[in-house]
């Protein structure tokens, strides 16, 4: 049950190690830019994986109306997972290596401007996805993107250059998965696919538009399937990915769904908002409609 008497209006949860940017200046910037009584602002640092989820759950219990994620999409996922189907709203100060959800919602990537947004905002209620019981807000995947996320996570640096390095490494060796797919309980698809992505937002991050036509508010998710291709063809797909043309590619299929069930031959890597995980041979993905309130730029 919520304690609706909390004096805190804005809880900032900072992941000190996510992304590529230093975050030691954030508290000073918040207190200088945010036009709120300092006594209504609280700033905390995460100390371990999953800590953001715990802090956000405590904020909900205390009735804090706005919880601000300061980090990347992984940090955002932890925090937002605890805000689903509550009255507590998610704010984003994008400081990760991709910032997919912030980019889709037109939240400024400039830190000062992202903080200033909190002085004058709209509230957008968005859908989320759920893969084998785990929420996601941008994308999840079990194909090449999952393979790349695993390599990316093991590299010592972050950013687009590092992601491209991971992509090239995996596209040469990964040949795809044989899948049996049941879409919305009425359509079946079988085959080998290099890329199998479930998109709520239109991009992975870094303006890599995996599903250019995806909407965060249509109460559906986008399934993106890419047939196996060679290295030269894969480079062409990368160009289309960054130029918002992948949905017109002849080797790519994009379908809308509410629920999907996939059977693989074996367990394997997946990613959830860019963070690598291991999933079973049976995978169930669902759309969770209108499940999260997000602070977005004010309508003009």
From TrEMBL:
Domain DAGKc: 5-135
Swiss-Prot/TrEMBL cofactor(s): Mg(2+)
GO BP of this protein: phospholipid biosynthetic process
Single GO molecular function: metal ion binding
Protein's UniProt keywords contain Hydrolase: no
InterPro entries xref list: ATP-NAD_kinase_N (IPR017438), Diacylglycerol/lipid_kinase (IPR005218), Diacylglycerol_kinase_cat_dom (IPR001206), Lipid_Phosphate_FormReg (IPR050187), NAD/diacylglycerol_kinase_sf (IPR016064), YegS/DAGK_C (IPR045540)
UniProt-listed SUPFAM superfamilies: NAD kinase/diacylglycerol kinase-like
GO cellular-component term (any): plasma membrane
Keywords for the protein's UniProt record, in alphabetical order: ATP-binding, Kinase, Lipid biosynthesis, Lipid metabolism, Magnesium, Metal-binding, Nucleotide-binding, Phospholipid biosynthesis, Phospholipid metabolism, Transferase
Statement: the UniProt record of this protein carries the keyword ATP-binding: yes
NCBIfam families (UniProt xref): YegS/Rv2252/BmrU family lipid kinase (TIGR00147)
PANTHER family: LIPID KINASE YEGS (PTHR12358:SF106), SPHINGOSINE KINASE (PTHR12358)
Protein name: DAGKc domain-containing protein
Source organism of this protein record: Cytophaga hutchinsonii (strain ATCC 33406 / DSM 1761 / CIP 103989 / NBRC 15051 / NCIMB 9469 / D465)
Phylogenetic placement of the source organism: Bacteria, Pseudomonadati, Bacteroidota, Cytophagia, Cytophagales
């Amino acid at each position: 049950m919520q304690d609706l008497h909390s004096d805190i209006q804005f809880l900032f949860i900072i992941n000190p190690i996510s992304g590529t940017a230093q975050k030691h200046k954030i508290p000073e910037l918040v207190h200088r830019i945010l036009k709120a009584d300092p006594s209504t602002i609280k700033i905390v640092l995460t100390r371990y994986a999953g800590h953001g989820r715990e802090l956000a759950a405590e904020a909900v219990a205390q009735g804090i109306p706005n919880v601000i994620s300061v980090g990347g999409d992984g940090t955002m996922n932890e925090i937002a997972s605890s805000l689903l189907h509550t009255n507590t709203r998610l704010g984003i100060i994008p400081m990760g290596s991709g910032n997919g959800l912030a980019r889709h919602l037109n939240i400024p990537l400039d830190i000062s401007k992202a903080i200033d947004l909190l002085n004058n905002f709209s509230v957008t209620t968005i859908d989320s996805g759920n893969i084998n019981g785990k929420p996601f807000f941008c994308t999840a995947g079990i194909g090449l993107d999952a393979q790349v996320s695993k390599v990316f996570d093991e590299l010592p640096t972050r950013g687009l250059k590092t992601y491209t390095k991971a992509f090239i490494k995996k596209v040469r060796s990964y040949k795809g998965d044989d899948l049996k797919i049941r879409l919305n309980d009425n359509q079946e698809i079988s085959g080998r696919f290099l890329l199998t992505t479930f998109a709520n937002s239109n991009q992975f991050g870094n303006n890599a538009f995996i599903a250019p036509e995806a909407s965060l508010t249509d109460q559906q998710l986008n399934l993106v399937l890419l047939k196996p291709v060679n290295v030269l063809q894969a480079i062409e797909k990368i160009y289309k990915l960054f130029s918002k043309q992948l949905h017109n590619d002849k080797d790519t299929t994009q379908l809308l769904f509410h629920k999907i069930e996939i059977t693989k031959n074996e367990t394997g890597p997946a990613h959830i908002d860019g963070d690598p995980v291991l999933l079973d041979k049976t995978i169930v993905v669902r759309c969770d409609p209108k499940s999260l309130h997000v602070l977005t730029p004010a309508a003009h």
